[in-house]
User: Fold Glutamyl-tRNA(Gln) amidotransferase subunit A from Streptomyces morookaense.
Amino acid sequence: AHLARIDAVDEKVHAFLHVDREGALAQARAVDEKRARGEKLGPLAGVPLALKDIFTTEGIPTTVGSKILEGWIPPYDATLTKRLKDADVVILGKTNMDEFAMGSSTENSAYGPTGNPWDLTKIPGGSGGGSSAALASYEAPLAIGTDTGGSIRQPAAVTGTVGVKPTYGAVSRYGMVAFSSSLDQGGPCARTVLDAALLHEVIAGHDPLDSTSIDAPVPPVVEAARNGSVAGMRVGVVKQFRGEGYQAGVLQRFDESVELLRELGAEIVEVDCPSFDLALAAYYLIAPSECSSNLARFDGLRYGLRTGDDGTRSAEDVTALTREAGFGPEVKRRVMLGTYALSSGYYDAYYGSAQKVRTLITRDFEKAFEQVDVLVSPTTPTTAFAIGERADDPMAMYLADLCTIPTNLAGNAAMSLPCGLAPEDGLPVGLQIIAPAMKDDRLYKVGAAVE
Ligand code: GLN
Assistant:
């Protein structure tokens, strides 16, 4: 049924870069056979899923939305892919994304943009717009995203779906193409809080192949999602997440959500996180710095694209020509920014300062969580904007992640879930819930209460 739905709508939505029809049907048949033999089935047996094209999949193309990996077929599965298969999930295919997960609209994909199923002229968010669009258009009931600065939560918000960035280290990064390693985190996307929790439990857990993987039990997210409640909880409203640039209808729905939390028995506290105002600036030094280093491996010799190798050119020239042809403008901008920020003489002024801001943000969170159990905010300052509207204005594009970036810098957990439609444009608004590191279950408990 989901493959038929993809056939019917994906030409317009363009959520998928690759549909693995044969593989999906074979996986589904294998589940049926297991069931017929009376064998024990995985926890999500037979449930179809859309996988962001940033996770390696053995034998299935993985492009990261980039021309530089066009045609590359990974020889191995990411740990996350393997866990999905072990849970008997049916992987439908790979979803569209901003190139190397750099963007907030999926317009930076080298393979063309994805439409927002609510209004195809609008962006579905990014970088994981394909995964969220697949959910919103009923092409898949579950999806996977990655969140470096908001790429799970912002697409969830603008498509009216649920997305969770787990605590940093909760989900293995092994086989997840690296953008900014100290920020990148895979996570679940779904249409309900409970669905997200069921997927969370399958993909989270220690992995010896990822040196930053948390070696501790996964918080009880499914139990929390089944027992939604905020009675007696302290909920903080971050002072910094409103004001100039916030759409009136977004703030209206957010304020209503806060009222609902109060009615359900939560105590509402205003909290001050002054360093959050510096988060965007710090992120756009740290993320490009790490990306400039991570993307050095795309040299035209090891993977995918190779340009200009006519037998007369040096390896260095072939690398330069390949990177010139294979990377899009946003990726080039970030590699150049990052290389500059890390170069000797500038390192302390830029990268060093950004790391200090990162510590201040972490401290703001620590102080806030001494007062409250969770924080709430709008997920994004505005609803989905038009495709093309911010394409030539990187700064305007970067602002889409104003409310999501502090969590990545501090490494704690956050969820976005729908909280209604903005009256002025009828488009979905996202409510963000933020929890301390390792307390991911609180997101689900609060999310299930207000869903
Ligand atoms: N939009 C942000 C960026 O462009 C976040 C991307 C992400 O979370 N992968 O870097």
